[in-house]
Design a protein that fits this description.
With 335 residues, this protein is an alpha/beta fold. The chain is built from 10 helices and 14 strands. It is globular and about 55 Å long.
Length: 335
């Protein structure tokens, strides 16, 4: 399989490292507005540098485009790839507006190419174990869930993160991980109530979700946390409780290009010490799905649902009212 990468920042480098470790995958093209970033990725992959995206689509011979651009650009570049007949691997969030996400899904379906969105938490083994325990009934009826992720403000490294119109802010960019996981593990959400507080380099949000199965989930996301990136998950059911806290384990011990580090080029990306980290597992899975036509663990429709939940959180925080996600489809202004 031949892959081209658009966006050579932090996650573009993660994609490049993962692909170069796959013996049956070749990176044939890279493209980035910042030539130094493109050249760094080209040097490690042996790929050709393209200054023009459409030229890369036309001339590189790629089968797949890996999109690691700022979030507001995902829809445009994914649709252009689909129209060129290329499979699309796109970082989360799928887009910043629901109508753009739906267009990405429909364009990929129309042109017969796959759309694979990087909700990488589905590939973290501790989260997979929790999901399986819920599905197997080992925890009984799930009553309450607490989920949290926090880290330095990525806007200190890449300024676009600090602009909601470009990143979606802490909810659409960071909380969306847990919103996707909880939707995957617990099903449909019936209502959302949220609060958000922002200052120059602090962005904090908390949301209470009521699921149709009766579960209540409290979800927190924080940019600007001074103690380093960490995640927490606690699921309490009628038959037991399961907890995960990355600060009490060895699962998240490597910090790459932390945003608090002076002069850092890239936002903080959690890494893992094992040979095949979740990002590599995810990309390998997507490649195999493209090769075999198999159903991916996370679909484009899943990514659309995660975005709708994130937008419901944003709307609730802005209005101070409960939001019912099922009603969003009739409210174009919240999309």
């Amino acid at each position: 399989m031949k892959v081209a990468i658009i966006g050579c920042g932090g996650l573009g480098n993660v994609h490049a490292d993962s692909y170069t470790a796959m013996p049956d995958v070749t990176v044939v093209g890279v493209c980035d507005l910042e030539e130094a970033h493109a050249r760094a990725v080209a040097n490690k992959t042996g790929a050709h540098i393209y200054a023009d995206y459409d030229q890369m689509l036309a001339e590189s011979g790629c089968d797949i485009v890996s999109i690691a651009l700022p979030s507001h650009l995902h829809a445009e570049f994914a649709i252009r790839a689909a129209r060129a007949g290329k499979h699309v691997i796109c970082e989360k969030p799928i887009a910043l507006r629901s109508e753009d996400a739906e267009r990405m899904v429909s364009e990929c379906e129309q042109h017969g190419v796959g759309l694979y969105v990087g909700h990488v938490v589905r590939f973290f083994p501790e989260y997979v174990r929790v999901k399986n325990q819920i599905a197997d009934g080992k925890l009984g009826q799930i009553g309450v869930v607490h989920a949290k992720r926090a880290g330095g403000h990525p806007g200190l490294a890449r300024s676009w993160f600090a602009n909601d119109n470009l990143s979606g802010g802490v909810v659409v960019d960071l909380m969306v991980h847990d919103l996707d996981f909880l939707s995957w593990a617990l099903g449909e959400v019936s209502s959302v109530y949220a609060f958000r507080q922002r200052s120059e380099w602090q962005d904090y949000a908390t949301a209470t979700l009521r699921f149709k199965n009766g579960t209540i989930a409290n979800v927190e996301a924080h940019w600007g946390y001074p103690g380093g990136f960490h995640t927490m998950l606690e699921v309490a059911g009628s038959s037991g409780t399961v907890r995960h806290d990355s600060r009490n384990s060895n699962s998240l011990t490597i910090r790459k290009a932390a945003s608090q580090q002076e002069g850092a080029r890239f936002a903080e990306i959690p890494q893992r010490p094992e040979t095949l980290n979740p990002y590599a597992k995810e990309l390998r899975h997507f490649i195999e799905c493209i090769r075999t036509g198999g159903q991916p663990i996370v679909t484009g429709r899943d990514a659309c649902r995660a975005l709708e939940l994130a937008l419901a959180v944003v709307e609730s925080a802005e209005t101070g009212r409960v939001v019912y996600p099922a009603a969003l489809s009739t409210k174009g202004e919240t999309k």
